[in-house]
Write a structure and sequence with these properties.
Number of strands of chain B: 5
Helix content of chain B: 10-25%
Structural class of chain B: mainly beta
Oligomer: heterodimer
Strand order of the largest sheet of chain A: 5-4-3-10-9
Number of domains of chain B: 1
Number of strands of chain A: 10
CATH architecture of chain A: Alpha-Beta Barrel
Radius of gyration of chain B: 11 Å
Helix content of chain A: 25-40%
Number of helices of chain A: 8
CATH architecture of chain B: Roll
Strand content of chain A: 15-25%
Distance between the termini of chain B: 38 Å
CATH superfamily of chain B: Beta-grasp domain
Order of helices and strands of chain A: EEEHEEHEHEHEHEHEHH
CATH class of chain A: Alpha Beta
Radius of gyration of chain A: 20 Å
Number of domains of chain A: 1
Shape of chain B: globular
Largest sheet of chain B: 5 strands, mixed
CATH superfamily of chain A: Aldolase class I
CATH topology of chain A: TIM Barrel
Largest sheet of chain A: 5 strands, parallel
Chain lengths: 260, 65
């Protein structure tokens, strides 16, 4: 049981007892965010920063997020390290805390992250005291470089953003989990609770899910399902499940009934 | 005076940042302001004078993943 005791994810000096990170994008109504957080148990949620629409009386999205939940502003919209750094600084100075999800995207077809620019931004922001969580193409060498650059975790994508395709990158993510001394958060493309559970069973430290929850017909219920799946997958990982094998092995005694 | 606001050149009637946010019809609580690449927190808007040629960004937090 030792492995189960006090199972917390520590990021930037904060302890998280829940390993589902969520996002605020694509909700049909922002008032669903708070009940979704409660149902899922998620303790960290992403937000984005954009130019205002002039004349918009929209309330700040931050007012829809309970104070107990850690904000993870992202640098979406950034196409270079420089832009990502600027967004991170603005987010911190406007009181969003020092967590930042680096997301630098130049490939507008598949929305895949630009690892080179991501590394540059990570180096600068980690030195400035940010808790840097970079969204990355799953690549072992790059995971090591992010570690050396001061990242707090690595966030390899499961499949392209918003696709619900799940763990297309499974084998590479597995290897990153194997070698990484940083927490591994599988981000993007997770479309089903079963896929989230699979990532956790593999030993991922957390998963980040936005689209699948927000675009379901019932985001509160979907959030709950993901929360349960992540907890179940984690529990299975800690239980150290037996390996798969090619041959049958009886679960009942092999002696025939009433025969010896 | 002329300023660059969110990437567009506009004629600004307000002399201070508070006035500009009001002029643009925005709810102050939802706005993050950056003047010439420096973030200006809301308590400083009233004392932030706008000068000709200033580059101002008015931003807000939105949903994102």
């Amino acid at each position: 049981m030792a492995k189960n005791d006090n199972d917390v994810l520590v990021l930037g000096g904060k302890s998280f007892t829940n390993r589902l990170l969520t996002g605020t994008g694509k909700f049909s109504s922002r008032s669903l965010i708070s009940p979704m957080l409660e149902a899922s148990g998620s303790q960290m949620i992403t937000v984005a920063l954009r130019r205002v629409d002039m004349g918009s009386k929209d309330e700040n999205i931050l007012t829809f997020i309970p104070d107990t939940v850690t904000l993870l502003p992202n640098t979406s919209g950034a196409r270079t390290a420089k832009e990502a750094i600027r967004i991170a600084r603005i987010a911190r100075e406007s009181g969003c805390g020092n967590f930042i999800k680096i997301e630098v995207i130049t490939d507008m077809q598949y929305l895949l992250p630009d690892n080179q620019e991501t590394l540059k931004a990570t180096e600068v922001l980690a030195k400035e005291g940010f808790v840097v969580l970079p969204y990355m193409m799953p690549d072992i060498t790059f995971a090591r470089q992010l570690h050396d650059a001061g990242a707090a975790a690595v966030m390899p994508l499961g499949s392209p953003i918003g696709t619900n395709l799940g763990l297309e990158m499974k084998s590479m993510i597995k290897r990153i989990i194997e070698i990484s001394s940083l927490p591994v958060v599988v981000d993007a493309g997770i479309g089903r609770p079963s896929q989230a559970a699979q990532a956790m069973e593999m030993g991922a430290d957390a998963v980040l899910v936005n689209t699948a929850i927000a675009t379901s017909a019932d985001p509160v219920r979907a959030g709950k399902a993901f929360g349960m799946a992540v907890a179940a997958g984690r529990m299975a990982y800690l239980a150290d499940m037996a390996d798969e094998q090619d041959f049958a092995e009886a679960s009942s005694p092999l002696t025939g009934f009433l025969r010896s | 005076m002329k300023i660059r606001l969110n990437g567009r050149t506009i004629e600004c009637r307000s002399s201070r940042l508070t006035g500009l946010v009001r002029e643009m019809g925005l709810a102050p609580s939802s706005v993050v302001a950056e003047v010439n690449l420096e973030v200006v927190t809301q308590e400083k808007w009233e004392s932030t004078w706008i000068k000709d040629g200033d580059e101002i960004e008015l931003l807000s937090f939105v949903g994102g993943g």
